[in-house]
Amino acid sequence: MLALTIILLVLLGVVVLAGLVLLGIYNGLVRSRVRAREAWSGIDVQLKRRASLIPNLVETVKGYAAHEKQVLENVTRARAMLEQAGGAAQAAQADNVLTGALRSLFAVSENYPQLRANENFLALQQELSDVEEKIAFARQFYNRNVMQFNTRIQVFPSVIIANMFNFERFDFFEAEETAREDVPVSFTPSG
User: Fold this and answer.
1) Quick one: angle between helices 2-64 and 119-152, nearest 10?
2) CA–CA distance, 116 with 3 (Å, rounded to integer)
3) Pairing with 172, which of 24, 68, 86, 180 sits 20 to 30 Å away (CA)?
4) The whole model's pTM is what?
């Protein structure tokens, strides 16, 4: 009878220990998922902040470069794509399109010395430059959290818990090769 009691206590201890380990793994996965989602919100905030600068930038340029309609329409269209993006992969793609459109806009502005000297344009350029830096930092922070989460849901033994509770991978927020260069946002008057 004593041996049976000891065996039952050992089995109960093993079950409780296994339950605690599984609970710890599950809670760790949830914490990692929350960190990745929170990191995404940091990118989302900066992308929205940049998108809110675009109408002012377009209006400022429009006053000086009215015949550059196609460039202005491309910027506006790219901004709309970014606002409608449904996740990290779509947002990254739309961000790459917007970055290219902004490059074209700034290249066109080179032809208008009065525009380059406009205080509003210069302020918008500086603010856009600041936002670009924040987006780069937020992207790095997000991708690091996504990497950690995606790794956790793929390694043993947490892969078992991740599959049981349908934890899904997050997409990375990646810039295209052509978009990895800095966006030129400062101009000096040529003399």
Assistant:
1) 160
2) 89
3) 24
4) 0.75
